[in-house]
Amino acid sequence: MTDRTRAERRLGLLLCAPAVLAMLLVTAYPIVYAVVLSLQDLDLRFPDEGGFVGLDNYVTVLTSGLWWQSVFNTAFIAIVSVSIELVLGMAIALVMHRAIFGRGLVRTSVLIPYGIVTVVAAFAWFYAFDPNTGFVNSLPLIADDKAWFGERFSSFAVIIMAEVWKTTPFMALLLLAGLATIDEGLYEAAKVDGASAVQRFFRITLPLLKPALLVALLFRTLDAFRVFDSIFVMTRGALDTESISILGYNQLISRLNLGLGSAVSVLIFLLVLAIASVFVKGFGTTVPQGPGGSGKK
Amino acid sequence: MTASLVAMAVVLTGAGCGGDEGGEGTRELTWFVPFQPGGALTTLSERCSQESNGRYTIALELLPTDASQQREQLVRRLGAEDDSIDLIGMDVIWTGEFANAGWIAPVPGDVESQVTENVFESVLETARFEGELYAIPVWSNTQLLWYRKDRVDEPPQTWDEMIDRAEELGPSEGRIQVQGNRYEGLVVWTNWMIESAGTSILAGPEELELEQEPTERALSIMGRLSRSPVAATNISTSTEDSARLGFEDGSSAFMINYPFVYPSAESNAPDVFEQMGAAKLPQVVKGEESAPPIGGINLGVSAFSDNQERAFEAAECLVQAENQIEVAELEGLPPVRSDLFDEPEIEEIYPGFASLIRESISDAAPRPSQSPAYQDVSLAIQRSVHPTDEIDPQDPTPTYEELRDKLEQAVAREGLL
After folding, report:
1. Dmax of chain B from CA atoms?
2. Sheet strand arrangement including B276-279
3. Is the pLDDT reported for residue B221 higher than 90?
4. What are the pLDDT digits (tens) for A105-115?
5. Number of CB pairs < 8 Å for A and B?
């Protein structure tokens, strides 16, 4: 390494330092504090009791059927909603990419749901499906008195629809950015060679879109795993629709049991970390190095 | 913490001799209280501020209408020993929790004698913790059985009679509206059913009662209704408001709800209103009077307030007879003093059923809020009873066992809820 690169490196580190410090302050500190709290028997309602209990809280959480039920619910919502989003998002991205006129208008209007606050969107969906106020039950083919939030499956359906509606634009936008990096020449060459539209999609678009796809999937899966607002507004976790965030909320905010609640939060953090590392490690090696890469596994 | 102990000691010992705040000058008292739509809160706080001769002015901080959200906003502040709260409009179920945690100051003896006179014993019970008065009741509430006079000749005496009659009428005009969503309203229903069956959920702050036979009797009726064709289709998400709407649309013959539904029907559904009758809640065991639920607001004084003496003065003013009647007039919320039911205004506000409300409050059984971990108790009940259509009316034992297990866990404050 030459002196010059070393000096540049030092400058680089120095320029990064404020950002790193700020990050440590606002993210590392709360995380460490949550870990500390999770090792204590701490209930704000009983200020005189408690103390250090080691891993007791974690044992309590991990041996509870409620925890595993919520993990399952959360994974179910995440997998179903992200799969639907991926398909819809891809379709919208392709349309936006090929749109000839009104490009700006199309892109802006597709983004509107993403711009709406999640709680507001959740209420909109809640009221639409509510038998007293909603219009959904007056649509043809739907029973007039269907209580959507009265059973588990239909509650999940509405929650997932609300999630999909809100975050598909995000998926579409990330994929659109990926599409823009693909060289048009490849398509023309393929056309000359007689490749059909389907073949071009699966042989050119998909492999070259992989980096963008992975980023979009990772972001959305992590996001979906923290689902809270829609469930909180629509069912408050009733009928076995509880997500792990709702479970944590009940312990922390409702019961003021900071020890147990922090243990739930730390476990959610670890789960999210695990998902991220599976994505990065598991798929990361197959990511082609930019446009024109081989894309073969 | 030390500061709060000193403040509490001052209130305990120094009441009447001025304490630390006997000086001149007007203090602003902040009253955190659940929003009421009729405007009574503004009227009351302005009136008392004026009558205080410059001792205090009351500033309102309105809490949301949902009971769990009200509590969440408050406990976060109180848990952090926030001194910006002076007076708290407390739901009747918070007393044990707030008092045990040291968040509210006990009511001084001389104030106590002033504010408890003629107050229903059932109401006072909600304001006490371990035998000591921690809050000052200001308004009450209870549920009645509302029925359609054109569809039912005589209001039913028991639950079984009511469900039988409703099933004769059929789902198009015989529905029964209750509160079955997984929220505090379901705890209200479950508790009064169990109390009316002859047992109680708790025997003491950390001790279960929950005798099996009567509890199963109560659960079995809840299951029977929920599985009947005359249950509201949305019973597992039903609330006070959805019950009101279900009654106003004309499909129901019976509804268990608070008195706010009466003026509501008058303005929203005049046809239904004309046929609306009120009765005492149906019996769970034939011949045994039901034990209606009790709601309402008690005034607590924050242990972290710098103006505790003035806050108690303000509370004394807010609960004066004329103010209780004003609240009944503007908000439809019944007074906490039994003698006020003799006033002509109250009969006007509750035409034909004022004495029924009086009797219901007097017979009421509070929820098990003597537990300092009431929130856990409430969550445990909600989790084990909801959805009510999963209770098998022929064999309620599994639900009973789940309820018992969860409640044991709740009073011991163990595990996830």
Report:
1. 70
2. B175-177, B252-257, B144-148, B276-279
3. yes
4. 888 888 899 99
5. 90
Q: Can you give the pTM of this predicted structure?
A: 0.86
A96-102 long-range contacts, Cβ below 8 Å, gap at least 24?
A: A96/A172, A96/A176, A97/A176, A97/A179, A97/A180
Pinpoint the alpha helices (H) of chain A. 3-23, 29-38, 56-62, 65-98, 103-115, 118-129, 152-180, 184-192, 197-200, 206-225, 229-234, 244-249, 258-277, 284
Query: Which positions ≥6 away from A240 have C-beta within 8 Å?
Result: A69, A73, A152
Cβ B169 vs Cβ B230: under 8 Å? yes
Residue B413 with chain A: CB contacts under 8 Å: 43, 46, 257
Query: Treating both helix axes as pointing N-terminal to C-terminal, what angle do B261-268 and B240-248 enclose, rounded to 10 degrees?
Result: 40
Q: CA-CA distance, B104 to B398, in Å (whole number)?
A: 39
Cα–Cα distance, A269 to A58 (Å, whole number): 13
**Token match 């242990």: residue?**
B303
Write the DSSP symbol of residue A150. G
* Cα angle A193, A198, A199; round to 5: 40
Which CA distances in Å does B149 have to B145, B153, B173, B197, B255? 12, 6, 12, 27, 12
The chain-wide mean pLDDT, for chain A, equals: 87
What percentage of chain A carries pLDDT values higher than 90? 47
Q: Taking chain B, what is the end-to-end CA distance rounded to the nearest angstrom?
A: 29
Contact call for B416 and A61, based on CB within 8 A: yes
Both tokens of residue A83?
């799969």
The predicted structure's pLDDT at residue B9: 44
Q: Does A263 touch chain B (CB under 8 A)?
A: no
CB contact, 8 Å: B102 with chain A?
A: yes
* Maximum Cα–Cα distance across chain A: 79
By the 8 A CB rule, do B67 and B91 touch? yes
Chain A residue closest in CA terms to B75:
A256
0.85 surpassed by complex ipTM: no
Give Cα A288 distance to the centre of its chain: 24
Task: Give the pair of three-digit tokens for residue A30.
Answer: 């709360």
In whole angstroms, what is the distance from residue B14 CA to residue B266 CA? 51
Q: Tokens 């009944």 label which residue? A: B328
Which tokens is B376 given? 């856990």
Show the tokens assigned to B381.
């009940």
